[in-house]
């Protein structure tokens, strides 16, 4: 099957057994790529592998915990031996944490930083030598509009996603001389399985999250197509949701005080006032 987006043919995706990671894996499988997914959910990983195999040139599933550099290195070594390398690495695995600053434990801070931020760091660290060896490669790092827009009661989540944006911006400059590209993806709420692993100190947050996700006019498949096109064209920022893009522009252009008042008013509308 031909691929009209890019000459790249080998991809590895963390958190690829479900949610957005699977949507992205399925898109590339339909383009005839060799697809490798890593996930800690063994049963879902095996199921995803069977589904993807209907279209992909080749599919591999790895039990891969992004908090363990050894796991990621094992994947990198295996793909180097089996495929001669990899063209596209998607650091997608992530979790959510919601709560006021005084209610969120430091254990939860360590938990989310280890997955959302250091999981991306490990993925970039492990695969960069392969990219440099083959003189090309591309990272897609999945952040969030939460990393650009400072929504209250989400300090831990926001901080990790903002750090992923900053890491990606830095690597864009650092890796360019080695012909390695970087794309950072910052979606707003959309229907995915992020809530399954969410930790929250806010009552009924699962219902609020479900309500916010249901309002999205974009599906995971829609966003996967946008991300693939952006990576093929070597674009850096991907902000799929129009409302998110508008608010981000307001943050960049408005005085901080005015933007802060607008955010606080908006937050109060969705139940943030206590």
**Low-pLDDT sequence parts:** 1-7
Percent of residues in β-strands: 5-15%
State the helix count.
9
- In terms of structural class, how would the helical and strand content be classed? alpha/beta
Strand order, main sheet: write it out: 3-2-1-4-6-7-9
Q: Approximately how much helix is present in the residues?
A: 40-55%
What's the helix-strand series? EHEHEHEEHEHEEHHEHH
Largest sheet: 7 strands, parallel
Query: What's the pLDDT, averaged over the residues?
Result: 88
Distance between the termini: 55 Å
Radius of gyration: 18 Å
Number of strands: 9
Shape: globular
In short:
The chain is built from nine helices and nine strands. By secondary structure, the protein is of the alpha/beta class. Strand 2 (34-39), helix 2 (42-52) and strand 3 form a beta-alpha-beta unit.
């Amino acid at each position: 099957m031909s691929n009209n987006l890019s000459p790249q043919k080998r991809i590895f995706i963390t958190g690829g057994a479900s949610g957005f990671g699977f949507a992205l894996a399925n898109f590339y499988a339909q383009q005839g790529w060799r697809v490798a997914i890593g996930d800690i959910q063994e049963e879902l990983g095996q199921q995803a592998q069977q589904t993807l195999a209907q279209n992909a040139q080749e599919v591999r599933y790895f039990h891969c915990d992004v908090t363990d550099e050894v796991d990621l290195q094992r994947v990198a070594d295996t793909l180097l031996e089996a495929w001669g390398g990899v063209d596209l690495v998607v650091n997608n695995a992530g979790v959510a944490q919601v709560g006021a600053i005084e209610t969120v434990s430091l254990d939860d801070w360590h938990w989310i930083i280890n997955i959302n931020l250091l999981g991306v760091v490990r993925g970039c660290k492990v695969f960069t030598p392969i990219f440099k060896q083959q003189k090309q490669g591309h990272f897609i790092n999945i952040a969030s509009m939460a990393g650009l827009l400072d929504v209250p009661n989400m300090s831990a989540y926001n901080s990790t996603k903002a750090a992923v944006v900053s890491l990606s911006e830095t690597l864009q400059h650092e890796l360019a001389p080695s012909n390695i590209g970087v794309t950072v993806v910052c979606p707003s709420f959309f229907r995915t399985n992020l809530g399954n692993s969410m930790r929250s100190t806010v009552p009924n947050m699962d219902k609020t999250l479900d309500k916010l996700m249901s309002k999205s006019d974009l599906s995971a498949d829609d966003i996967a197509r946008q991300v693939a096109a952006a990576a093929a064209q070597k674009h850096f920022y991907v902000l799929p949701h129009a409302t998110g893009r508008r608010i981000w522009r307001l943050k960049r252009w408005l005085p901080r005080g005015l933007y802060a008042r607008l955010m606080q008013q908006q937050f109060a509308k969705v139940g943030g006032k206590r």
